[in-house]
Amino acid sequence: MEKFVGESADKHERHLKEIESAKSRLADMNGAVFGEKAAREKHHATMEQRLEQIEKLLGESIDTHSKSVRQLELKHGDLRGLMDALHGHVKNDKESRNADHSLMNDKLSLLEVYMNDSASKHDKHLKEIDAAHSKIRELQNLCAADKAHIQGTIPQLKSASSTWKSKSAKLQIPMTTQ
Q1: How far apart are CA 120 and CA 109, in angstroms?
Q2: What are phi and psi of 34, to 5 degrees?
Q3: Using one digit for the tens of pLDDT, what is the confidence trace for 2-23?
């Protein structure tokens, strides 16, 4: 009988040590899960900051583009007004046109200056837009890479969660969620 009690006590002690060991491993796994959660939340915050920066850049690009378009429309309206003035002048009688021929040459030269200025400003603006688009593509590529990384870690987290659940079920430890 003493032998049976001794064996039972030994078994009981072994089981208690296994339970303590399992609790320790469970606490370690729980700490790892929370560490990963904190890292994910930090990564999520940097993603939000990146997205805010992209939205800011897009907003600034749109504002710049809108201002440039308005300026071009104003210049176009000015040029249209000058063209209309020239057209009305040309409709006058032949003698008036001959007398004002030098004036028309001056106005055409002025129009050429306006058109050249407008074209060079337009080219500069297009280069700025191309640069902004290039930056946006870079940011989109960064976001795609971050998204792929996040999606790559999801199966690992699910696997760790599944392992933890199965081990806790075997040990009959009640699961708590936080």
Answers
A1: 16
A2: -70, -35
A3: 666 667 777 878 888 888 888 8
